Amino acid sequence: MSSVAIAILVLAILAIIFGVILGFAAVRFKVDGDPIVDQIDALLPQTQCGQCGHPGCRPYAEGIASGEAINKCPPGGQTTIDQLAELLNVDSIPLDAEHGIEDVRKVAYIREDECIGCTKCIQACPVDAILGAAKLMHTVIVDECTGCDLCVEPCPVDCIDMLPVGTTTLNWKWPEPPQTNNLIATDRQTRVEEYPS
Amino acid sequence: MKVFSFHGGIHPPENKKQSTRAEVRHLATPKTLVIPTQQHLGLAADPVVSVGEKVLKGQMIAEPVGRISASLHAPTSGTVTAIEELPVPHASGLTAECIVIESDGLDQWIDHQAIDYKSIERNELLHRIRQMGIAGMGGAGFPTDVKLNLSSDHIVTTLIINAAECEPYITADDMLMREHASEILEGVKIIQHLLKPIKTLIGIEDNKPNAIRALNEALANTDIDLDLVVVPTKYPSGGERQLIQLLTGVEVPSGKIPADIGIVMQNVGTAQALHRAINHGEPLIQRIVTVTGEAVEHPGNFWALIGTPFSDLLSAADLKPGAMHRLVMGGPMMGVAAETDAIPVIKTTNCLIAATESEMPEAPAAQPCIRCGMCEQACPAQLLPQQLYWFAKGKEFEKAKNHNLFDCIECGACAYVCPSSIPLVQFYRFAKSEIRAEALEQRKADHARERFEARQARLEREAIEKAERRKARAAEAAKAQAERKNQSSSESGNSDTAALKTAAAVARTKLKKAEVALKNAQDKGLDGVDTLQSTVEKLKQTATEAEQALKSSTTASTSNAAPSKSDPKADKPDLKALKQQVSIMRTKLKKAEAAEDKDLNEIKTLKARLEEATQAHTDADHALIELANNAGIDLKQLRIDVAMAKVAVTKAERMISKSDDEKEQETLKTELTSAKSKLAQLETQLKPYE
User: Fold this and answer.
1) Cα-flanking dihedrals φ and ψ of residue B474, to 5°?
2) What 3-state DSSP class applies to A144?
3) Domain-by-domain residue ranges, chain A?
4) Most buried of B253, B519, B578, B656 (most Cβ within 10 A)?
5) Are residues B549 and B649 both part of a single domain?
6) pTM for this prediction
């Protein structure tokens, strides 16, 4: 009888000690904010284009964190979807065509002769990549442009083009070498009937 | 001198003899020179000439932009005919911005002169080197001034001059050492002057006996603290990290540069170019290029101007028509194929191989990796090439990075030994550029996020500021309105008088009518005479009140208007009159209060008027005090003095009347006179302020 009592007593004391430790740890190592949103936001391409239906990348990151689909980001494309799937430990899904299709990276270009200086595109640009003033010509700072498309719509004279970013010696990438299909040396790409009998 | 060793390495056929038989030949000045503005990492140089401009040999045509950038100079005299996109020596085969110069055939130098580097400031010397466009001529073309300026934040213990030239076929440095050994040593002296190393070493492979002999001879003729170290021939002993390991036994840590462990390495070609730039004032506009391969009849080395098209070099070496299968820029191990022979020579072009098909056949199809491990044995960076290969192939770039992919020097030793002929280096290059691109993308995304957030913050701030401004404006408007109201009410003092006049007139008329009515009623003996009488009484009272109000308001307005007169004498209010007024008011008030049928209204108006009068009096008093103050007189003290003097006079008079003694009376009288005179004096002083 007494051994049972001792066992219960020992377990109870242990439970109290661990409870105190856990309680302390919960207070001491408390994580502020929602780090998953930051992690998702870090993966998104930050074009701030709004094609996902949110007014920017961070709101979409918050949306994903609260259970929204991960395939609504055309600028990020399949790469971003895969990364998000890995981060969130869900299955990767193809891009939702409803929000747009994956395209080559583009930047806005203002045909400066036609620009009337209305500043509408400047107000639309989410990253302040357009330079200009009222009744003066505007121009796009190419290095800052995310290619979000948002400036095209407000332009009253349609002088903004989205041009693909060309390959130069600076952004050129080595091509992927041709893959060898045969996995093992004896795996010849020949049919059985071709073997000499 | 002890020579250490590095891991791995290979011994490919050297193929160097073909191009060292003849002396270095000078190439005729080409008709057209094409100078790419970007010849190294970092930023492209910015053209400072315009199309159509005449340039002289050695004139700067593009200036460096940013820290890692080198200037460019016209290799010969002529005219700038274009600044356009043309094929450049780059693995991509793409075009890039080039400055095209049409030679005028005169080869006329711009004014240039040597400088004594020992007598000028260190920074000035570095600036000069930068202006001369000196860049590393061994491989990457890294701007030399940047490398020589490292000693400001690094302590340089060892300077190593790289003369190894380990890659097959290439003999440019070999020939330079044979023919210009003393110039190289002069260049080394300049580097020593800048870096002040404890020791200087020249590392050279033992397959260049002629160059070693030439260097030794030159060393015997100059006083320079330098050790020539002959290292065994092994590819890639000319790699920066490998040569450091060979000569010092120290391994440069991963992710660090040699300067971090106190070592700086310069190529012999760079040293010679430095000598020409400083001791002769000639910018870097030419270099030795090895033209070799089985497709040329007379392989050899050429002094070629920067910007010379490959085709000129090939024809100078007598290219066999139709024999060339591939044209390689650089060596067979690390070089890249050139797609056209219109590509120009740049500062880092050390070799051109015009190879026949049998010399450099198409790479055999890659077989599967059999995990033999030979690549690991050959890797001079002690990496795991096959592991990196699997990661690159499977696009697991993160893992490749963690396996130190970026320590790979792309020497090609692993691919050379691979029995399955897998193009390993191509996989590493692919993986590296993918990782770099991704990192760039990430940086761009972070930058965009930053800008986006900054913009959001700005918009928010602007909205708040706008709201605040609106609030402030509203408050101001309300205040202005209130003020306007006040003003109009004070201005309406006159209109009030008018209103009072009308009121008085109306009251009078009413009274007359009532009196007439009363008279009629009394005459006719009608009822209600009492009521009429009381009405008349009331009306009389109203009329008097109105009259009185009118009178008081007119006097108030006149008294208000009075002080505004600018006559200085009139500025002095009549204190006595005011005092009188106050006392009159007080009496009137008392009377009104004492009266049996108290008229509250009247008392009120009287009280107000009394207050007004008192206020006027005190104001006047204050004004007087101030006035006196301005004249340097303390009015209060003066008043007290006057009162004292008066008291003294009365006292003296009383004393006289009381006294019996004649003598005493006499003295008292004199006292009285003096007191009187004093009083009179004080009073005259006080008078202007009363």
Assistant:
1) -60, -45
2) coil
3) 35-99, 104-166
4) B578
5) no
6) 0.70
